[in-house]
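Backbone shape codes
____________________
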Amino acid sequence: VKMSKPILYYDDRSPPVRSCLMLIKMLNIDVELRFVDLFRGEQFGKGFLELNPQHSVPTLVHDELVLTDSHVILIYLVEQFDADGALWPKDYLARMKVLNRLFFECSFLFRRDSDLMSEIVRKEYANVDVAYHERKLCEAYGIMEQYLAEQQHMAADQLTLADISIVTTLSTVNLMFPVATAEEQRWPRLQRWFATMQQLDAYDVNRIGLEKLRQIVEQMGKFEFPKPSLEKAA
């Protein structure tokens, strides 16, 4: 049975969306993209709510299947379009390790990122307890630094879905709390990994959405993110 082209509902200002877009670019998957403007509330439109009552993006529709979590979408896309690749290892234990990192991104890293960004947008930056969020996110940096003590990437020595899922969120919080600071090298492994990820061709997709997010959060939060000191010019 020939399946139709997958449809991805997206707003590339969202980190989980950007991980799906990165993967789509890496695997050169033919996907129909439909933009849902989160900052204008388009996710609350009646049609979209019927599709995804969680009113979140990314949402992937492929024939009868509707997926509403970026991590599940990543897994589905590699299983459909990259069956022999290393992004989702064949070896069961290696795959479980990747899955564990996906859950870390979902339940820990992204939650803390989302708490910070939504608070800036909702309350304006001047009213945000920045030190609290810095503590929470630096803890996450420390955890990732420890993950990277075991291997070159987040879940293996080569690139997996774990890296693609984590890097889009990390780059987002990096706007606020840079991983690389001139004063101290607190997370040398994380810094090296992040630099490696930025060399990927598909990372351009992330860069574009990240810049759009930076602009709208600054505008709504009435502030400016710190200027990157050691960020390499793209």
Remarks:
- The chain has eight helices and four strands.
- The longest strand covers residues 7-10.
